Amino acid sequence: MTDRLGFGAASIGNLYREVSDDDARAVLEEAWAGGMRSYDTAPHYGLGLSERRLGAFLAQRPRESFRLSTKVGRLIVPNDGPRRGTDEENGFVVPDDHVRRWDPSLDGIRRSLDASLERLGLDRVDTLFLHDPDVYGLDEGLRQGLPALARLREAGLVDEIGVGVNSVEAAVRAVREGDLDVVMIAGRYTLLEQPAAGELLPLCRERGVRVLAVAVFNSGLLASDTPATAHYNYGAVPPELVERTERLREVCARFGVPLPAAAIQYPLRHPAVDQVVVGTARTSSLRANLRHMTTEIPDGLWEALRAELLIP
Hints:
Distance between the termini: 24 Å
């Protein structure tokens, strides 16, 4: 099952908290030892820190033994403006000596890929995603970014191209308007909510587009067997989702299944979903994720969740 579990490297870019080089390497070592061979990063994650750490680790492994994706659309450039000291406003505890600049043009995307390869210390990535075009301007992003990605694929610089977004509507447009190989959708096809099931997943299956489900714990709501403080879409959790989470937890408990095990396996039940991608900078959490992937879940659990209208 570990071939269907990818490592998301945002956390080792100091997402929400500072992570030491030793701890970042330890969690990557744990992922490798557990059989994980698919890794995803982005310049956005820690203003390049995630790419540098991941690249230093993977450079010591045979290149044909793993698959690697990164993202384009945000160039990392020196910060010539005012500084606050860290990039915590964007979620990363790193110095704000650089900033992100949106550029979905062919030149911008090629420069972004070149800069990523330099930070990674590698000569190629397997998959390249246009990152969050809906955040900066979806029309411009898709109009410029999708053809630019296709050019890089045609030139043999990457094997696969896709988009990485939080928005189902943006993903649907990208699949319809571009010639994509893969879509990374964050938080929109999980045990808690399934808006991607309506149009996006059937469309991807029809067109042979692989789907990677990320943020399957919905920012931590589904990550624990016990109620925990969490965020939802980077803000407070709506009361109705707190209640829904507790109902999910109660049904899972009746079958002796940890809630996070159900959460990590649920997206993979859809034939369009090829892989789940999870990220952490803690070795204990990484080991737990590996256990959750192999937890045996009886069909009766899914039937009970459907009966209580908690999943389609």
